[in-house]
Design a protein that fits this description.
By secondary structure, this protein is α+β, with helices and mostly antiparallel strands. The protein has one domain: Alpha-Beta Complex (Creatine Amidinohydrolase). The chain is built from five helices and 15 strands. The strands form four sheets. The protein has a five-stranded antiparallel β-sheet with strand order 7-6-8-14-15. The protein has a four-stranded antiparallel β-sheet with strand order 2-12-10-11. A three-stranded antiparallel β-sheet has the order 1-3-4. The chain is globular and about 50 Å long. The structure holds cobalt (II) ion (CO). Cobalt (II) ion binds next to strand 4.
């Protein structure tokens, strides 16, 4: 990785980490979800970053891919909230998430299990390690606490303008495995739950355009967001469902309705270790 690209990653990571922490401090009972999502997106730009995807705010049994569309949803006492944000500089993406519980402490151990699993995964990430070896460490750490991982969700490699660049880091010791190399960039994201960890799909609130764009509306989206994800509320004048080549990011929900926690950092793989850019 050359020095300029490295600097872009460092800058994106620094902004993402700061915005994540500021967002967490705004997650309070009776605050609309939209306030926090818009804060994240505006603050990212204010600090000189670009938005890599709509701010995900996923509550309780929802694992990921929810973003508020209007002012009708409020945080409630006892909610377990995952806030997941993405910042890019020139297409180089930093992806990070954390979990907070509002006003109660019923799920502190679940949140800790996730954070510890992420820490252990980061400690073991280095060039030439197998992805399933990292997955094994994540799975064992979460199970040690008596919880399960969400097997359908994985960490993922990041490349310029690509949020999911092809290499995945499982949250358990999977059969499938790939060897990771120096200079690769990964978002590592364990999800832990009190349930069995199976997921079902909900509605889609986040979208992206793949392939060819036929219409003016499609071209507008392509020119503003490229192939990166966007929210309906960013393009109120466009009927998103009518776009050609539309990819829908369906909400993922713990199938038993059990609470889910998430922790996520972006790392650059080095020989003998990795550099965490979203600390
Ligand atoms: Co993320």
């Amino acid at each position: 990785m050359n020095e300029i690209i490295h600097e872009h990653y460092i800058e994106a990571g620094k902004i993402a980490a700061r915005v994540r922490e500021e967002a967490v401090s705004r997650i309070k009972e009776d605050t609309p979800l939209l306030d926090v999502a818009e804060f994240v997106e505006n603050r990212t730009k204010e600090l000189g970053g670009n938005i890599a995807f709509p701010c995900n705010i996923s509550i309780n049994e929802i694992t990921s891919h929810y973003t508020p569309e209007d002012n009708s949803h409020y945080f409630r006492r006892g909610d377990v909230v995952k806030v997941d944000i993405g910042v890019h500089i020139e297409g180089y993406i930093a992806d990070t998430a954390s979990t907070v519980e509002i006003g109660t402490d019923h799920y502190g151990r679940l949140i800790n299990a996730c954070e510890e699993a992420l820490g252990c995964a980061i400690s073991s990430t280095r060039s030439n390690i197998e992805t399933r070896a990292i997955g094994k460490i994540i799975g064992e750490t979460v199970r040690k606490y008596g919880f399960n991982v969400i097997k359908d969700l994985t960490g993922h490699s990041l490349e310029r303008w690509k949020l999911h660049a092809g290499v995945t880091i499982p949250n358990y010791r999977s059969l499938f495995s790939q060897r990771i190399e120096e200079g690769m960039v990964f978002a590592i994201e364990p999800f832990a739950t009190c349930g069995k960890g199976n997921v079902r799909y909900g509605e889609a609130h986040i979208f992206a355009l793949n392939g060819r764009v036929g219409t003016d509306a499609g071209q507008e989206i392509r020119s503003r967001f490229g192939t990166l994800p966007f929210a309906r509320r960013w393009v109120p004048q466009i009927k998103v469902e009518e776009l050609k080549g539309l990819r829908k990011y369906f909400e993922l929900i713990e199938a038993g309705g059990e609470i889910v926690a998430q922790a996520e950092h972006t790392v650059i793989v080095r020989e003998g270790g990795c550099e965490v850019i979203t600390k």
